[in-house]
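no rush on this but wanted to send it before i forget. what follows is a protein written twice so to speak, once as letters and once as structure tokens for the fold. mainly i need to know what kind of three dimensional shape the backbone takes. thanks a lot i owe you, the record is right below.
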Amino acid sequence: MIYLICFANLVGLTIYWCRLGVDGLRRVYLTMFVSCYVFTYFGGVLLANVLYSSYGIDKISASDATTRELVLLAQVCLLLFVLGYWMTGPLRGLISRRAEIDWRTGTVWFVRVLSAALILSMLVYLIGSGGPVLLKEGGYENRYDANVGMGSYSLFFSMGLMACTLASLRARTRAEKLRVTGGTIMYCLLTFVVLGGYRQLGFAALFSIAVIAVLRRDISFGKFLIVSVALVTTTLVVAIFRYTGTTSDQAGGLTGRLFIFLYDGFAPVDAFYNIVAFCRYHDVTENVFLNQFLTTVPRFMWSQKPAIVLNAGNFYTQMVLGRTELITYSPTLLGELYLLGGSAACVLGAFISGCILRTFDEIILLSKHKMLVAFLFSFSFVFVFNLYREGIEVLVTKTILYGTAVLVLLTVTRLLTGFRRIV
């Protein structure tokens, strides 16, 4: 029964992609979130079963009754997400509508400033961390501690993502589009090497220019799906290197490791099950929602800031899993919500998530504010990734942090260009 529900959701997701095609990508937040959610909470259960039956790796140790309960809860939350998304529709009337956006007008200097911010922050980061983190000795856990205290600099690495997206939106000729593609690949490599195996920004940049290409009919929807599969495959191959030296590196041979990385990278549903089991025997008094905002306070303003602040991810890692290393394991959206208030919080949070993502989609589709549209589109993959893997509080803080950084650089651009209108 439970596996049938999980399989039915995957079939439904496949039908969704087949029927909507390119039109589904126009509502990029809805399409990405539903895809990630279904693959995590339903596909993840099926993947966990494959890992156990084929490799003896027990990812979900919950009883059948608990699994049934949580699969049904995930199903209810998905329906409430869709309901929240649908009910936010009237918001369209509050958005200042556009006719068409001319991306080539007034954006070239902003792309330059974004790129300069990326390069400068990368140089400062390299100096502060003593060189590229990827080249440091040890496995991923040992490389991770090189990032502690460097968050304010690495924040501006994400500005390269928006630079790549804006440059792609500006490109018209084949030569321009090829240059943007080459620059985006270079951005992927640089962030991977400098940050020590970090894949999210590079994947997001490639995803953004691929979506732009398919919406402009530069490539077919079929080729877009091939590109997407290639990106996922690449991240799995990269993960073999990234996690060399960890416990995952020892299991199941090459095929087993690929299954593990597919599960851990895209469908870590066991986090939700682990958190539920923990909450049933322990009282959670830590305010993980508030703590997420405390993680953004710079260390020069909070001299006693601990190396690890117990937001949802760190609480799950430290308290639920009992791990003490600096690496953080993702609690997933429903896991984070369960820490905040059990099943009721999951239901409410799913509905709110639908409202937030519908707002983002409508702004991208309708708003006349060029830079706001570019910002939300550029970070669509990053925001959805953070929402479904980390939770609402991470989505909110990342939106504020990245939005503030973009606003600062936009102000710098205006000063450099004599306050020309570029929004």
About this structure: DSSP finds 19 helices and no strands in the chain. The radius of gyration is 21 Å. Residues 1-423 form one domain. The CA atoms of residues 412 and 418 lie 10 Å apart.
